[in-house]
Design brief:
The chain is of the alpha/beta class. The protein has two helices and eight strands. The chain has a five-stranded mixed beta sheet.
Amino acid sequence: MLLEPEKTLFIRGVTPVLLMSGTPVHDILPVLTAPDGVVPQCDAWSIVPKLTICVVDGPGEAGLMIPALVAPVIDEGGETAQPSEMAAWCADAERAGGAVVLSLDDLPETLDWAYLLGSSTARGGFMPALA
């Protein structure tokens, strides 16, 4: 399944984050409960962070492909990054050994990590990167 890049937000950081909205895999992902900020691993899921296509792979036939090169990228502070920052996001994911992937009903206008990690509205978790 192809997910439009407009339904994603890639966030750079020590542990990079991928926010997704309106995904067909939303109900398959586990409900995220991390009020203390420690994001659990998303069992049976992985991510392949590549410059042109990012793949979120789940159990069985579950999964998504995202045209990453044209997807929005921001830094931890919420500042918009240049399109070339996707390469840096991929490098962040490689260094971290994966990324936090969260599926939401809608992308947030502002990043409120306490709400995203503690409200039980997000689904997902940390997904290890596959080479």
